[in-house]
Design brief:
- This protein has 173 residues and is α+β, with helices and mostly antiparallel strands.
- The chain contains 4 helices and 11 strands.
- Helix 2 (98-109) packs across helix 4 (133-146).
């Protein structure tokens, strides 16, 4: 179970997992090591492990994993908060115009898909017709605000744009 606790205005996430396995202590230690590696790779939390006998009435070992992560450690560098229309890069609030914010949010919600300029204008802003170069200007402004920390928007020459930074963004819906 995870629990968030506010400490000095930072969020701390605590994780404790106890697993009872029917095996000897050597195998329990190997299981603990594999679980640690898996959790650290998947969740991004550095954990500690310990094994101890399951008690008089149970056979086997108990493997306990515990870890703590403060906000900002292992979190994606870009956070988008649609309800408050805020964009944070490494915890710092960035200023986006309405059109820039809507375009960035649309692309992040549709990663690895290529959209041409006119599709973006129609689906993001509800514009039909017009000059597709408007999208180019807004993409350039978004890139200017995110670089050099991130370069998640890729130009697909002759087609349009694709968001390639899916692992670098958290959309806080």
């Amino acid at each position: 179970m995870t629990q968030s606790v506010a400490v000095n205005r930072e969020t701390t996430v605590e994780l404790t997992l106890a697993l009872r396995v029917s095996t000897d202590s050597a195998h329990a230690a190997a299981i603990a090591a594999r679980l640690l590696e898996s959790f650290e790779d998947t969740v991004g939390v550095t954990l500690t492990a310990r094994t101890f006998p399951g008690g008089e009435t149970t056979s086997g070992q108990v493997v306990e994993l515990a870890g703590r992560r403060q906000r900002g450690h292992g979190e994606p560098p870009l956070r988008i908060e649609p309800d408050s229309r805020r964009v944070l890069l490494r915890g710092e609030v960035l200023e986006f115009t309405r059109l820039e914010f809507d375009l960035l949010l649309f692309l992040t919600r549709n990663p690895a898909r290529v959209f041409d300029r006119f599709t973006l204008m129609a689906q993001v802003w509800g514009f039909s017709g017009g000059n597709g170069r408007t999208v180019d200007v807004h993409v350039r402004k978004i890139r200017g605000k995110l670089e050099p920390v991130l370069t998640p928007i890729t130009t697909v020459r002759g087609v349009g744009y694709r968001f390639d930074g899916a692992g670098q963004v958290l959309i806080a819906d």
